[in-house]
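Hi there,

I know you've been waiting on this one. I reran it after we fixed the sequence typo, so this is the corrected version. Both the input and the resulting structure follow.
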Amino acid sequence: MNSTAQVSLEWLLLAAAFLALFAVLLPAFQLVAEAGFWGLEVAKAKSFADSFQQKTVLLNALGNGSRMVMRVSTGMPWIIKTEENRLEVWVLENEREKRFERQLSFPAISTEFEVVGSVQLVLQKQNNVLIVNRQFD
């Protein structure tokens, strides 16, 4: 009976050591996960900026009244701004921010808005000027 109790105590001690190690490493896992989420969001914003730029090239080739729809789904706050021949996209998280800037193929009406979650952007060419409107899902 004494041997069985000793084995149970050894297993209990081993489990306690494992839980203590897990508790110590948990903040490190959280930092790695946050860095990964940040990297994914930045890559998504860069891809969005590139796609937006390409759509304006296509819109520029089309006639007035042409429109295209882009769907944006963010996990962190973004600021999207169009001004003259420029698009700016910021990804924001606490003290970090990443900015992407792209040249547009024709002038845009100045707009600036924050996107969190899912939204559709309607890009429309009107009188050789780009108009960007957002529609919530």
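Quick highlight: The first helix runs from residue 2 to 61.

Best,
R. S.
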